[in-house]
Amino acid sequence: MDQFDIIVIGGGSAGSAAAGRLSEDGRRRVCLLEAGGSNDTIRVKTPGFMPFIPEASNWRFETVPQKGLNGRLGYQPRGRGLGGSSAINAMVYIRGNRFDYDQWAALGCIGWSYDDVLPYFRRAEHNERGADAFHGGDGPLNVMDQRWPNPGSKAFVASAAALQLGANPDFNGAAQDGFGLYQVTQKDGERWSAARAYLTPRPNLTIRTGALVERLVIEEGRVTGVAVRFGGQQEVLRASGGVVLSAGAFGSPQILMLSGIGPAAHLSGQGIPVALHREAVGSDLQDHIDYVSSWETQSRDFFGDSLAGTWRMAKAVIEHRFKRTGIMTTCFAEGGGFWRTSADVPAADIQYHFVPAMLEDHGREKVKGHGFSIHACVLRPESRGTVRLASSDPAAAPAIDPNFLDDPRDIAVLRKGVRLSHRIAEAPPLSDYKPKDRYPIDLDNDAELDALIRERADTVYHPVGTCRMGSDDFSVVDPTLKARGIDGLWIADASVMPRLVSGNTNAPSIMIGERAADFVKAALA
Ligand SMILES: Cc1cc2nc3c(=O)[nH]c(=O)nc-3n(C[C@H](O)[C@H](O)[C@H](O)COP(=O)(O)OP(=O)(O)OC[C@H]3O[C@@H](n4cnc5c(N)ncnc54)[C@H](O)[C@@H]3O)c2cc1C
Fold first, then answer.
1. Which residues form a coiled coil (predicted)?
2. Is 35 touching ligand 1 by the criterion CB < 6 Å?
3. What rounded mean pLDDT belongs to the chain?
4. Which residues participate in catalysis according to the annotation?
């Protein structure tokens, strides 16, 4: 039986940050348990290989049938292996809006206002543009400008400017609104996952991959270890100081429920003895519903499936192997913007991602020819869903129900977002490519547009909220990320966000991992 001071479950964005920080002063024996592998392969590290990431690095979940999406099953990719979702994501570096964190604080997350979290974003970050009041200069997470943005991505930004939408060279600076090229979590032209940033080899940091955590070991109201499966073998690992649960927005509530912590009636229905009734475990699921408009072009500037495209990619792979430059450094979601659908919203409520390729079904369906896509997503959705156990088998996928478009306010916002995507595509210089809309409809007709949205919209991969933080008795963790009603347990990942942030969720998850390390250190001092 192995004995540690702290066990961190999940080597993803937050778990890597937490384990790295908890082990860096050498004073604690830290064990990081990760179900997947090391992810140390060129298919993960080369940004442009994102469509070819190994299947073993992705849980490839599906949702239950979505009423709001004509009964379709949504796709929910999640990273598996060191780096977690930061090893398969689009590398866009965005923190969200000041409003989000001030709202968290107003909801009871004392100590999580924007001014409270900014030092942790800065501490995490090494921005190659240099440090300033908003950015860090010597953190482990490398952030850089894109090495080779596609000419079409620059045209997207120029088309937005032609509509007087305003340029923004730094979405993580003083103001978020506007359009520009995203900064990326890359270093020297390679993907810079949270694992590469934080998991420095150290004698006091044990990293075990291929370790599927089945449940927490709870003794007299305290988490004292974890039961884990390595291949066919089951083991119990002990943690004298406690456990940090960082298995992500689906994995963390699943492990809690398998351990008897969650909605009592649901657990009983699964035949799991109830250790702690907590209705909020697996509840409050929020995710960014997203619609991808897509256009075909004659221009081969864009990525595409053609002889010329394949030849260009082959040369680019060689260039990248030797110099780490060229089109294989693409993050695909190269350009973007934040836009308010009305003057009275507190912050942008639509985010755009411009992709210099025609996307269909999350890139899983090959599209012949060349072209581009514009994602529009609803930044602060009102719909709420759940994660529940589909089975008491820890190796089974959980039942994920984002309940997309349940609240009519979400589709009303999305409609406006999609209409603007099309206005941008029709403005010069993007219009000079003579883009041909792949799904032409009468965009001014609400019923037609709603039908198309319900037929094609899905996630842009930002599920949160399933172990919500708060100061109320019903929240899962308190504002120091400690689980309520049970000792020796902290939760640190996207699941603790009480509200979805207005942006991508990797940097916020890393910030949460950074903070968890400080809270655990303080509690154990
Ligand atoms: C395809 C895709 C594109 C994205 N693009 C972007 C982007 O461009 N920018 C951005 O900011 N965000 C992006 N995101 C979202 C962002 O990456 C995630 O929100 C963030 O990484 C979540 O961090 P986390 O720590 O909560 O969970 P994760 O990083 O998902 O980590 C959870 C870890 O726990 C492990 N785990 C789960 N269950 C168990 C178990 N039972 N036992 C052991 N280990 C377990 C998992 O294997 C995983 O490694 C994207 C996500 C995806 C999937």
1. none
2. yes
3. 97
4. 462
